[in-house]
Amino acid sequence: MKAVILAGGLGTRISEESHLKPKPMIEIGGRPILWHIMKLYGHYGITEFVICCGYKGYIIKEYFKNYFLHMSDVTFDMRDNKMEVHQQNAEPWRVTLIDTGEQTQTGGRLRKVADHIGDETFCLTYGDGVSDVNIAALLSFHKAGGREATVTAVQPAGRFGAIELLNDRVSHFIEKPEGDGRWISGGFFVCEPSVLSRIEGDATIWEREPLESLAREGQLSAYRHDGFWAAMDTMRDRKVLEALWAEDRAPWRVWT
Hints:
This protein has helices spanning 15-18, 33-43, 57-65, 67-71, 106-112, 114-117, 135-145, 209-216, 235-246; strands spanning 2-7, 27-28, 31-32, 48-53, 73-77, 82-86, 94-99, 122-126, 129-131, 149-154, 162-166, 169-174, 184-185, 189-191, 220-224, 229-231. By secondary structure, the protein is an alpha/beta fold. Strands 1, 4, 7, 8, 10, 13, 14 and 15 form an 8-stranded mixed sheet that branches. A two-stranded antiparallel ribbon has the order 2-3. A two-stranded antiparallel sheet has the order 5-6. A hairpin with a 4-residue loop joins β5 (73-77) and β6.
């Protein structure tokens, strides 16, 4: 099974770093957030990836081209023009990187990699969101549902602390309460290849007509995930994730 990762957006809300690199390459704990997402899938035995590149996609390509240099100790023999890799830490991944265009929308990106997906069930997610979602359980849920697609539904925590009021007096303070109780799409989709026929072209936004038509026709399941989920939309989001990693409290680190 393959995992398709949408990694081509401009990342305008985190422009402090995205003007230099695509958002999926912004680092958490010295590794691109894209790497963290791939490690989650790899933990559940999914090691084939199709990366939909766009904005500054060459940086993603260069990262994987030089993966040994990023992940291992090396010796360069300048005299004989040789490189020796020590303590090789590379992952058992097969990574296909496709330039899907800078201006292409999410659905269009997916359509452009159809030939690399084939005719089997595939996973799909965004290149800026991490979670401790159990991919094996998600896949089993999708198979049991028998529908064309499954979305992981999440309830993100409130962004700010809240106060409870009793008339004009603060009765107590709630640090980062739960959100408004609504479920939102957290990515981490599982799809049948038939969903690709719902994408008209480059301008198609995956979250609109394709998903909306699946919902109308009763072909979209929701896998409710009560655990950790976070999207890195802003520098504040990045700092929160960085702190969790630095303190060895990163819930999405399910691998050893």
